[in-house]
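call fold(seq) -> tokens
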Amino acid sequence: MSTVMHSQPRPAADPLVIAGVEYQSRLLVGTGKYRDLEETRAATEASGAEIVTVAIRRTNIGQNPDEPSLLDVISTDRYTLLPNTAGCYTAEDAVRTCRLARELLDGHDLVKLEVLGDETTLFPDIVQTMQATETLVRDGFKIMVYTNDDPIIAKRFEDMGCVAVMPLAAPIGSGLGIRNPYNILTIVENASVPILVDAGVGTASDAAIAMELGCDGVLMNTAIAGARDPVLMASAMKKAIEAGREAFRAGRIPRKRFASASSPIDGTFF
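ret:
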């Protein structure tokens, strides 16, 4: 007696496209705050991420030849490095940092721009960020910009030439989750470039919600590196991103105040 095997249908290709390059993972991860480089390597691998962000002002990627380098565990053959300007509080510092990254990485021009306005909240300084954006776009950089969750500002950055816009969900490192989902939704609905939530994710459900809102991806660091088991949390985030994206593509049912029968009762015998 023969057995018919039924294979599960595979989802259609759904790559994340940034600056013309396709990525299969929609999870972007940072490389800071881990106990050591080995934990960085293991968690990054477990996350399934293809884009890995690096704080140029805080991380050795070759500028200090006598110290361990991140590139010893994060290979540029496997990952796309995304240099970021974390720790910059002026447009001038951010521009200088991006130019340093391009020099260190042999002309690499994809960068994450953030210019902070306050050491306590780490909220972005939008005026300084816009000034840096103007200069960097003119210099040929491809900018993924960290900003607040203001839909008007997000659209302005897109119009200025940023290849992706990255609104915060909550303050950096807070783990508070998405505080203003309707702002994020409005940004997504009006965008023509990828929108990625950046900052504020605390656990897997936060990442899934961001994806269910229609975001193109999520960038996180503290949520993974600060977990009790960073490698396990990285694996959880990978699954959450995938599940949230599939749920968004599938389309959720409408919310209703009262329950409704899951099966019709017309034609039943009682």
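The two ends are 40 Å apart (CA to CA).
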